[in-house]
Amino acid sequence: MTTTLNNSNSFDTNDGVRAYVEQSLKMLDQVVEQVIPKDDVDNFKELLDIFFAAEDKEEKQEAFEGLVEILMQEPITVSRLDLDHEPGEEIQKWMNFVGKKIHRYRKAAKMSQEVLSEKTGLPQSHISRLESGKHSPSNATLKKIAAALDIEIKLLDPSA
Fold this sequence. Notes:
This protein is mainly alpha-helical. The protein has helices at residues 14-34, 41-53, 57-72, 89-108, 113-120, 124-131, 139-149. It is built from seven helices and no strands. Keywords: DNA-binding. Residues 102-156 form the HTH cro/C1-type domain. This is Anaerobic benzoate catabolism transcriptional regulator.
C-alpha cells in the first residue's frame, strides 16, 4: 500500500500513516547520525521535545528555528598555518625584547616557569619559547602574563 496525502493533508488509510511515520523516523535517525555534529545531538533531541510539547505557535516556532540552525550549520575546520619564512628582523627584535622582559619580571617575582604556567594557564614550554624569543606572544597572552606577574602590560610591551 502506498502512502499518499489527500488535499486536506490527511492520510487516506491507517497503513499510510504508519508507513509515513516509519519513513520519517528512519530519515530523522539518519540525519541525527550523519548530519548533526555529535556535540549538538543532545541539544537537537531537547529541541525536538520542546517542539512537540509546545503549547503555542511561538514556542513551536522558536524550537523549529533552533532545530533548523543545528541542521544547517556550516562545518568548522581548523588548519595549521605554516609560515614559509622566518619573522622579519624588526619582529624578531620585538620578540626578543618582550621575551627578555617576561624573563626579567618572572625572576623578579621569584617565580619559576612552571609557576607562571599554572598562574596563566599557558604551557610551560610556551613560556620558555616566549622568553627565548622563539614565539611571538599575542596581546591576550601578554595580558595573562602581566596579570600573573601583577604588573602592567606596558612593562612587557610598551606598544600595548
